[in-house]
Amino acid sequence: MIFSSIDYFIFFIVIISLMMIIRPNSVKKGILLFSSYFFYAYWDYRFVFLMFLMSIVNYYIGIKIEKSSYQADKKKWLIASVIFNLCILGFFKYFNFFIESANFFLDKVNFRLPLVEIILPVAISFITFEVMSYVIDIYRGSNKSAGNFWDLALLVAFFPHLIAGPILKPSHFLPQLDKDIIIKWKNVEYGVQIFLVGLVKKIVIADRLALFADPVFQDPSGYSNLTVWLAVIAYSIQIFCDFSGYSDMAIGSAKCFGFDIPANFNMPYISRSVTEFWRRWHISLSTWLKEYLYYSLGGNRKGEVRQYINLMLVMLLGGLWHGASWNFVIWGGLHGIALAIHKLWSTHVKNYFNTELFAYKFVSWLVTMVFICVTWVFFRSQDFATSGLIVQKMFYMINPEGIKWYATSIIAIIPFVIAAHYIGARLNRYAYFKLNTIKGLFILFFVILGLIFLQPLQSSPFIYFQF
Amino acid sequence: MKIFFKIIIALILALISWEVLLGLTIVKLPGTVNHPVFGNTYKQGLLIWGKEGYSITYINSLGLREKEIASKKDNEFRILSLGDSYAEGFQVPDNKLLTAQLNSLLNKDKSSDKYFNVINAAKSGYSPSYYIHFSDFYKKALAQDYTIAIIMDSDFYRDSFDKNQYIYLSQKDNSYNINVNKDFKSNKLAIFDKYKGFQFLKNYSIVNIGAKNLLHMLNINIGQGGKPKNKKKTDIKKYDPLIEWSILNLKNKYENIVILYLPEIDYDTLEKGKSDYESLTESYCKQYNVSFINMRNDFISYIKQSKQPVHGFFNTKPGEGHINVHAHGLIAKRLHKYFNEKF
Q1: Which of A28, A305, B23, B323 counts the most CB atoms within 10 A of its CB?
Q2: Per-residue DSSP letter, A463
Q3: ipTM of model
Q4: CATH number where B252 lies
Q5: What residues of chain A lie within 8 A of the CB of B9, using their CB?
Q6: Per-residue pLDDT tens listing for chain A (467 residues)
């Protein structure tokens, strides 16, 4: 069930109606949990048990850590939890990747390891990170274990964020479960508007741009250098609108039930450095990587060289988290290198420049954007050979000629991108339209009708669903 | 009650806003009228087409994409261009249409006092059976001196026997009967044709686009009518007599005619040979001494040389959909050469 489907609207209306009718809070939480499992089972019911297993094992370990008197015991339980979670993730997501990578070398001695047919459970990466953060927080003493198992199960499975995040911080979400769940018009009014902004980003912008970007990424050799550049820019906008659109829909859905989910994006394409980009892009993931991986590796506490190595390691693993492919590893690696270079620049070189000059700001932004766009090539391409071809085409390293396709959508979409950004930013400041005024209702109907009129008949799946 | 009125007002304002926006950018139809000869056809008026390419054009009282056709002048040499949506070319601006370009090329040569007038009589969904059936009307109403019939494979395998068309064929022994489908209304949004009182709604852009998208969202089959898609081009033997019959009848019905063939291009393998329909059309034209122009080589040379496809627009994937301005230009040049050699 995806947010932009009719099925989801029916599902959502049924759940919210039930929540309005039913009084006891425990029953409401039960309904939310059951509906979240139903939401997940709608894809593949078999993996509901896996999600349940991960929740119960980590709940148990959380209690064990909390009750252990000795640090050594706490550490043992933490290691057990990390191994358990990473084994599940490793088996389902990376088993065949490692076999294939090993086979690359084993081929030279005429030996091949067999591949295993494994179905990748939806959202396994998000679920793993969610439960890991729960246990690590308890180990570090920054959060207590959930009041009961069902609260943790709901934190993991809560349907608005289940499939593609944002990854919730247990210390932020669990206290919200202690309060009564009350459906308030103010929250619904606000949530619906955030949801619609997300839906516009997804349907009107991302899906439309996919119709241009997909064929070019499929066969880049056939298109001209400028068309390839435009397709890369189109994909950069597409992935932002697709993923931030999903996050908005998650935040909006949760808000209707009275839950606050923090923003996952903050206008990342205005960033003037890669470091700033990662503060604005997929905030819940970058925060997770920083708090649970970068700090665990020593962060910046072990000297400058070690800090660069840590940045590199975090981004390589962050890249691999996105998918079992060397393309993602390269993407992460490039970002790791860029973060290290930016750190080096900020520490040793930046002071020689007047950073307040417009020219400096503009060049910083341009260099950052070109870098981000080029790295998206590795993220999007189906294999390394295609990525290489696209990059060569972009920088005139091979014949730049080909079909000149200047898709109207990339120009036509600009007002929608600006409007979605502007309205999204206003919504973040709680400056939303009152839906009981003619102005508010007009905007509501205008947007809903726009979604009907402007949807492409061929929709694309959410990009982050594959992770 | 107050909120109910607010909802109604807001909804109406939103619908009006979208009607204006969609009419200017995606599609604005002039509506339809029941013409005594052509049946259900576009009304006279402005038409805006933003699907694939973009054009703002005028539909005349015959439902043709042309200005009103004046009575023939003494020195006028009138050429009638027949075809389907590919030749009608709503995706291409007026001045880039093959007929407009041919017109200006022919009239540029001032060697004779002849004035050429190329009329675009192409209409969406038309095929050779239409041209044969309407031949007398064209002769009487338009009095052309020469006729260009633009045909392609799908005219035979998709359109000729389609009972959802206004004109369709039925086979009888070794011959064919032309049938007129009196109930024909439109090939789009057939769902509205069930309820006669609501047919006018189809003329609104919000209904035209919205109903189709909404029903698509709800996964409801909207009854596209006219054009069954993906009909396999099997059993060429079945179509062989049809092609022969079509060529022979076109020759008999039109005194001076040239058949211009629009090939289907496989952009992955440009060197792929002619289709069976193409070869048969060419051989029957030769057998019955009908002038024949095949655009295959012109298209392929152009694609190879310029790397630009002759199908598709900025709105769509290059190489897919209707022919674009490049193709219209190539066709005009080829016909110009043909008429120069002829006269």
Answers
A1: B323
A2: G
A3: 0.77
A4: 3.40.50.1110
A5: 438
A6: 788 788 888 999 999 999 999 888 889 999 999 999 999 898 888 889 999 999 999 999 999 998 888 889 999 999 999 999 999 988 888 888 788 888 888 888 888 888 777 777 878 888 999 999 999 999 998 888 888 899 999 999 999 988 877 888 898 888 898 888 889 988 998 899 889 889 988 888 898 889 889 999 998 988 999 999 999 999 999 999 999 999 999 999 999 999 999 888 888 888 999 999 999 999 999 999 999 988 888 888 888 888 888 888 999 988 988 877 888 899 999 999 999 999 888 888 878 888 788 899 999 999 999 999 999 999 999 888 899 999 999 988 888 888 888 887 777 887 877 777 777 777 766 657 888 888 989 988 998 898 888 887 666 666 666 55
Contacts of B206 in chain A (CB under 8 A): 449, 453
Which residue is associated with the tokens 């009239």?
Answer: B107
Residues in A closer than 8 angstroms to B17, CB to CB, are: 446
Chain B partners of A406 at a C-beta cutoff of 8 Å? 314
Residue B3 lies in a domain: no
Domain that holds residue B140: 68-187+225-342
Establish if B14 belongs to a structural domain. Answer: no
Spatial distance between the Cα atoms of B328 and B120, rounded to a whole number of angstroms? 12
Coil/strand/helix, residue A114: coil
Q: What DSSP line would sit under B127-155, residue for residue?
A: -HHHHHHTHHHHHHHH--SEEEEEE-HHI
Which one of the listed residues A322, A335, A342, A421 is annotated catalytic? A322
**Residue A335 is a catalytic residue:** no
Q: Is residue B329 part of a domain?
A: yes
Q: What number of C-beta contacts closer than 8 Å exist between A and B?
A: 66
Is the minimum CB–CB distance between A406 and chain B shorter than 8 Å? yes
CB contact under 8 A, B315 and A452: no
| CB of A465 closer than 8 Å to CB of A323 | no
Domain for residue B19, yes or no? no
Provide the domain count of chain B.
Answer: 1
**Closest Cα in chain A to B268:** A222
Three-state secondary-structure class, residue B226? coil
The sheet with strand B27-28 has its strands ordered as B27-28, B45-49, B55-59
Residue of chain A whose Cα is closest to the Cα of B217: A6
